[in-house]
Amino acid sequence: MPDNPAQTWENTIIHRDLHGHVTHELGKAILRGDVAPGSPLPREAELMERFGVSRTVLREALRTLTSKGLIESRPKVGTRVRPREAWNLLDADMLDWYARVAPPLQFALKLQEMREMIEPYAAALAADNHEDSSRERLTRAHQAMVDAQNVDEWVRADLDFHLGVLAACSNELLIPLGALIERTLEGQLRLNAKRADVYNASLAEHTAVFYAILARDASAARRAMADLLGVTRGRIEA
């Protein structure tokens, strides 16, 4: 007798949820240092019991972690954690897990360093290369920042503004970067807004970036974004 389609669908969703949960928890444990690089993972039977899952679910989770560079399996050696330099932290899931387990200040500063390396030059590229559609997106984001009435509205607009700057560069390699850091960047923007005297304290700095990009003044856009990120660093280090 054929399977009930509704039951089959439900079983598939449960299977995916279990796989995702095991992947998430094991990934965080490794990034947190519960299992040191070069050390073996617990045996399959132990992991199956710990998470209450089948061997199939566990092995799917391990394959996912292997694809992200966290672990490797070898005959007669078993499954071990790979060296830190092999970890693919430029992966949305990995970055999210790392943000959850890394010391908060340490992670915030690492993300800030990455932003300082990229965003001022992205603002200059946006000034040189923006098109009608990307200019309109930046205009909407900036206006939403001006109109924001609370932290949530401000953070959504702030995030869209910074992602809009990357999109305005007209460089296909920078757009995925925005998607990669979106979740972690949103967390940092929210923290910065809450640490400021008022949530929109950096509106003037964002406005300077916005008008420099619209004026196609690449040097001014780069300086304005560097100034904005300097304010951000000051709040992180305070």
TrEMBL record:
User: Which InterPro entries does the entry mention?
Assistant: GntR_C, TF_FadR/GntR_C, Tscrpt_reg_HTH_GntR, WH-like_DNA-bd_sf, WH_DNA-bd_sf
DNA-binding as a keyword of this entry, yes or no, is yes
Q: Pfam families, alphabetically?
A: FCD, GntR
Enumerate the UniProt keywords alphabetically.
Answer: DNA-binding, Transcription, Transcription regulation
Q: Which residues form the HTH gntR-type domain?
A: 16-84
User: Mind telling me which residue stretches traverse the membrane in this protein?
Assistant: none
Q: What's a Gene Ontology MF term here?
A: DNA-binding transcription factor activity
Q: What is this protein called?
A: GntR family transcriptional regulator
Q: Which organism is it from?
A: Caballeronia hypogeia
